[in-house]
Structure formats: structure tokens, C-alpha cells
Amino acid sequence: MAEQNLPLSEEVVRNILKEYNYTLPVLVDQSASFSKAWHAYVSPTVSLVSKDGRVTNFEGGNLDPALLEKSIQKALKDIPAVALPPKEYTSESEAKPCGHNHTIFVGNRFGKAWSPEVFTANGPWISHPLWLESGGKEKVQLDLMTSKNKIGILAESKPGRSSRINLFLDGQKVPLNLRGRDVQEDKGNTFVSVQGLKMYEAISHSMNLKEAGQKLTLTTDSGGLKLRALETLPNCLESD
After folding, report:
1. Number of domains making up the chain
2. Most buried of 21, 62, 119, 150 (most Cβ within 10 A)?
3. Which residue segment(s) compose the domain that 62 sits in?
């Protein structure tokens, strides 16, 4: 499936459901009102609602498939005449002891996700519902603490123009053994050249990051640059 702009339109969602033959009900939450009500500020966020209204919430952005399967099996047992599907995990210990990818949307509709534990945005960012935008007159900055995570940046430049995001790891240029495929170096500085909308890979081979955590800093003075989301992927799930 081709990469889509965020948020997804109703037409795009219908096409995805048709392409993959999904028949389950789907809500297109364009206003983000349901996201706020259910505290769904990272992806994936999963809540299991039973027939009698009981809610089981799972850790946002870090869904354990074995725990989810166990909870679904338990809920189905309460429904008469429903055949339980075969278990994929015979015990929770079979689940891979690894985290899951997190997608952090940075628009002000998702402002409750902004905290020092997630990231901090400094400088005169222009805040929009679905992105942060650089005005271009002054430098803006975003700091993200990370440990053993591959990091992607969903960013967009003005049409027909290129924007630059400077990258620093603990205040220094990103080392060669940690650079994602989109990172370049010029005069001792590491950066990503943003052309159009895509997910730009900033940190890769994250097994080389320190266990204690390191600070990734993004700065830019490119006017019209839109920062839409950050994505983290644990090193145990990296394919390269």
C-alpha cells in the first residue's frame, strides 16, 4: 500500500478496507474527539470493550500480542455458542520480549501526548491541528530522548522546495554507525534534506545506542517545514 498523507480521508480508508477485505466497523475520527476521549495519543492504542461495557486498556504504543489474545479469549468465553479461535500463543512467555513501534503525532490535536517524557518543542513553532510548522524567521528545536530505538521523522517541505533538519545526538553530530539512510553530512554537521512528504530515517542500527538513553535534537530555520510525527522502532524489530 502506498504511503498516505495524514489524516486519512474517508475515501482512502474505504479503499484500504476494500483492498484488504476488512468487514469490521471503522470510525474515521477527523476531529480527534474520540482520540482525546480514549487517550489515544500514540499508535497503536488498543482498548477491548466487552458486551456489558467493561473496558480493558492496553499500554499505548506497546501492545503485547499474547496479552491481547488472552484478553480476547477471556471475553469470548462469556458469549454463549461462540467457538473460541485457536490460540497463536500457548503461553505469554512465547511472545517476543520486545517493544513495539510508537508513532507520536505532534499536532495540537494530540497535545496531551506532549510531555518531557515524550519530547519537548522549543522556539516559535507554529502549532496546527495535525503538525508543527517552522516560521523560518527563528530557529526552532525539538528534543527526543531515546534508547535502543530506530527513529523516523514524518516531515514535509513546501511544494517544489527543499528544507533542512539538522540532527544532533547528545549535542554532537550523529555518528556514522547510527545514521539512518536519509542522514547527510556537510561541514561537520549531520542533517536530513526534506523534499516533499515522507518518513525520513534519522537513526538506524540502534543497538549501538547507549542503554541509559540519549537525546536526539532536531533544529531548523527552514520556513514552511511541517513536522507531522515521530516514529520509534525498537532495535529488536529492525530488519537491517
Report:
1. 2
2. 150
3. 31-94
